[in-house]
Amino acid sequence: MTTTVRTLTRRQVDRGVRDAMARVYLAGYGDPALAESRLDADNFATSTLRRHSRRTGFRLVVAVTDGTVSGFGYGFTGGSGQFWSDWLTGAAPDDIVSTWVGDHFELVDLVVHPDHRGQGISGLLHDHLVEGLPQEKALLATTPDEGPAARLYAGRGWQVLVPEIDGAKALYGLDLRAEALR
Ligand SMILES: CC(C)(COP(=O)(O)OP(=O)(O)OC[C@H]1O[C@@H](n2cnc3c(N)ncnc32)[C@H](O)[C@@H]1OP(=O)(O)O)[C@@H](O)C(=O)NCCC(=O)NCCS
After folding, report:
1. 65: Cβ below 6 Å to ligand 1?
2. pTM beyond cutoff 0.70
3. Is 46 in the pocket of ligand 1 (CB under 6 A)?
4. What one-character DSSP code corresponds to residue 134?
5. How far is the CA of 12 from the centre of ligand 1 (A)?
6. Which candidate, 143, 164, 163, places its Cα nearest to that of 153?
7. What is the pLDDT of residues 24-48, one digit of tens each?
8. Are 174 and 141 in contact (CB under 8 A)?
9. Is 122 in the pocket of ligand 1 (CB under 6 A)?
């Protein structure tokens, strides 16, 4: 199997791309047999993604394996006035907020279709997504267990900043300036 990763601009996120991303989102997070999951994936593609794609610093990477979209990752520049940044400002310790929150790259999502997992595609997506980012810091939230997401981020320089920030999720940070020097 051959996988290539493409970086798309906001204008390239057309109906076909949104539909392909919705399919990955549905298979990755939901149960395609359930109407609720299908609604959730549709809402992601038609509402959340559209809203996020208008934000400053939006960057989207899409993995294509043998002609099929097998995964994607995206983010944008986070800052005050946005829901997650404002929420973090209240939820994280002051020293973390002052060092990390604001003008950071917010890695919103990175997901690989279950049919294509375990082949290193998330690593390809990650590396394309963060390469050459203009921000100094990047942030994300995910579960800090022994699973593939934690393995992925731990192996790529991300550190746990706050072990429990949102239920079972931890806040992770990546120093992009240090990464650029590696
Ligand atoms: C997390 C996710 C993107 C990983 O995708 P993937 O392409 O299968 O991952 P990779 O094959 O690149 O493997 C990533 C790391 O996890 C490890 N890994 C893969 N499958 C694993 C498993 N079932 N259990 C534990 N570790 C696993 C790999 O060995 C690799 O670690 P390494 O770099 O130390 O070798 C995928 O599982 C997914 O889409 N999950 C749902 C969405 C999600 O949770 N996203 C992250 C939050 S933003």
Report:
1. no
2. yes
3. no
4. S
5. 27
6. 143
7. 999 999 999 999 999 999 999 999 9
8. no
9. yes
Check if the beta carbon of residue 33 is closer than 8 Å to that of residue 94: no
Task: Give residue limits of the domains in the chain.
Answer: 3-181
Phi, psi for residue 38 in degrees, rounded to 5? -65, -40
Give the mean pLDDT of 145-174: 94
| Third-level CATH fold of 3-181 | Aminopeptidase (3.40.630)
pLDDT of residue 168: 87
Q: Is 64 helix (H, G, I), strand (E, B) or coil?
A: strand
Residue type, 51: R
Number of Cα atoms under 13 Å in the Cβ half of residue 63:
26
Mean pLDDT for the chain overall: 96
Edge-to-edge strands, sheet with 159-166: 3-8, 59-65, 68-78, 104-112, 137-142, 169-175, 159-166
Q: Write down the pLDDT at residue 108.
A: 98
